Amino acid sequence: MSAVAELSQLKKQKGKGKRRYKDNLAGHLFLAPWTLGFFLITLAPMVATLYLAFTDYNLLQPPEWSGLENINRMFGDDRLHNSLEVTFTYVFIGVPLQLVVSLAVAMLLDRGMKGLPFYRSVFYLPSMLGASVAIAVLWRQIFGHSGLINQLLALVGVEGRGWVSSPDTALSTLIILHVWTFGAPMVIFLAGLRQIPDMYYEAASIDGAGKIKQFFTITIPLLTPIIFFNLIMQLIGAFQNFTQAFIVSGGSGGPADSTLFYTLYLYQQGFGRFDMGYAAAMAWLLVLIIASLTAINFFLAKYWVHYDD
After folding, report:
1. Which residue in 3, 41, 55, 225 is deepest, having the highest Cβ count within 10 Å?
2. Dihedrals φ, ψ of 233, to 5°?
């Protein structure tokens, strides 16, 4: 009987193994389109650009190995240095302001007002349209010399200026546009606020804590994982912004290179001058910058991000 039982057990194990194999095969088949897309559309071009970064390539002739020439060229490229300064200014001012505004709006919407789904959709809409060409064109018209902003200023007797045509204010208009597209982090903040138990606020009220103290001792600490997530995502996205600067400046990065984002300068080198080797090297420098800042944020997160177990 023991031999028969063992044989029956082996058959059951083989049957489970076949079912497991079929389940795994089905899973791999469903994942196949994404896997092929990752290797063919993402990984393969990245490897190709890594090679092209060390070559002289103009799209018309085969790439020629140039070693570290493109990297050495970066050290003496004043426009590249300026584009980095413009981009860092845009990121380090625009991202914190956007997070502050999105959190403030999320807290207003978290109070259970009537028509919450409508307001949430309205506030989220700019995030969907912010990177579009139409919004960039509209923004250029609003801040133009005869745009809406100057028309409103004229009503109170203030003479306006060409906000997008002045080197002193052109970048500021793009930062305002970035802050205006706060919908995505706002929705995430709103979801995080809904997860904070009311008992914490009730206990704090009983102890005499006011709204401001509750905000800094309860809301902010419990939202730090959400703040960290939004910070990383918005930081990466801000470094990759291109459309707004391209449309507002007409593709030149002007006036006086005041809106010359790094991605815009990369585009000019690659598709304006057909210097694909140098553009590839610039692309990898951007990858290293984003990866380094992300790694620094993850390292610092252990000092200020608190997870409620």
Report:
1. 55
2. -65, -45
